[in-house]
Write a structure and sequence with these properties.
about 140 residues, rod-shaped
Amino acid sequence: MANQRGSGALIMVVMVLMMGGFMIQLSLRHIENLMPQVASEQRYQQAWQGAQSALAWGVNLQWKEVPETTCQPGPDAGSQACLLKSVGERRLLRGQAGELPWQIQLYRWVSAHQGRLVALPSGWSDFCPLSPSNACDETG
């Protein structure tokens, strides 16, 4: 038998280890690049859920019979529920949460009965349904 030293196998093992290290480094760099996007999505989702919570909470509040916009602080920090001006028999309830640029405002058509609000079927919207659209910007 010929005298074998195994240097070819050793070179192959070293090359495989180097390629594996390179792949791990690329994966780490890719994950680091995605982290700001994940954080941004998390803040947006928290604002969306806070606005939904404020909207649901606002339906259950006792509201005064006033024609102008009135707001009450919401159940979560930075959230609020606002009852906007009347449009006929209906009123528009706005729930909002979050801070710019992730501030979310959701709307729900409601009717008032003895100071209590009743959510109208299919009455929710994620944009201002009033015309002009800046009519929803009143803070009360």
